[in-house]
Write a structure and sequence with these properties.
The protein contains 2 helices and 4 strands, in the order βαββαβ. By secondary structure, the chain is an alpha+beta fold. The chain has a single domain, classed as ACT domain (Alpha-Beta Plaits), CATH 3.30.70.
Length: 84
């Protein structure tokens, strides 16, 4: 049983434009979309997203985001993100 303390973590990921359904799924999971912008590849169709959520570790944060997003499309490049 994990007894770690929940803290704020940022996660960055890449994928197609988030649909209303996938944005709703993030919101329902208490994951906040902080920033989105076109990635320079794929003719600016691929998006870069930054989200904020409460998690115990960076790995936990990435896993939580993946659980929500993987159901709604093909996404890649999930990683913890340090934000200054």
């Amino acid at each position: 049983m994990d007894t770690g303390i929940l803290t704020k973590h940022h996660v960055r990921f890449f994928g197609p434009a988030l649909t209303r359904r996938s944005r709703g799924a993030l919101s329902a999971a208490s994951i906040t979309l902080v920033e989105r912008r076109p990635a320079p590849s794929w003719g600016n169709q691929l998006q870069e997203y930054l989200v904020l959520l409460d998690a115990r570790t960076d790995d936990d944060a990435v896993a939580r985001v993946r659980r929500v997003i993987d159901e709604h499309g093909s996404y890649a490049g999930f990683e913890p993100a340090s934000v200054n």
